[in-house]
Amino acid sequence: MKLLLNGCYIKIVEALSFRERLYGLMGKTNISFGMLFPKCNSIHTFFMKEDIDVVGLNDKNEIVFVERNVSKNKIIKIQLPIKKTSILELPKNTSQNLNIGDKLFFEFEDVV
């Protein structure tokens, strides 16, 4: 899956398995992709090596929360029901043109 941000496509990995949801971007350096956590309303940045941008989405993919350059050892909680919320972790400084109320459109890549 990919997302058009700032005129460029960024790859988005959907965290579906327990392992993907547990580790997310932990320990990664030179982060060049985003990670989507569906049905999730809180994350932490413990053991992160880089700052990230955190975007909260409702069930219509409208932005309900944005926090930029989140450093390590933080907990982010969005005050919406878990089943109606997703969290998108992005490389730092990629959410600068995103605002609360904007709607994101994810594109699915063709599998060949």
Structural class: mainly beta
Which bin fits the share of residues in helices?
under 10%
- Main sheet: strands, sense, barrel: 7 strands, mixed
- Separate helix tally: 1
The low-confidence parts are none
How large, in whole angstroms, is the Cα Rg?
13 Å
- Beta-strand share of residues: 35-45%
Q: So what's the overall shape?
A: globular
Distance between the termini: 14 Å
Account of the protein in words:
- This protein has 112 residues and is mainly beta.
- The chain has one helix and nine strands.
- The mean pLDDT is 93.
Output the keywords.
single chain, 112 residues, mainly beta, two-stranded antiparallel ribbon, 5% helix, globular
The gist of it:
The chain is 5% helix and 40% strand. It has one helix at 18-23, and strands spanning 2-5, 8-14, 34-37, 42-44, 52-58, 63-70, 75-77, 85-91, 106-107.
Question: What is the element layout, followed by pairings?
Answer:
Elements: E1 2-5, E2 8-14, H1 18-23, E3 34-37, E4 42-44, E5 52-58, E6 63-70, E7 75-77, E8 85-91, E9 106-107
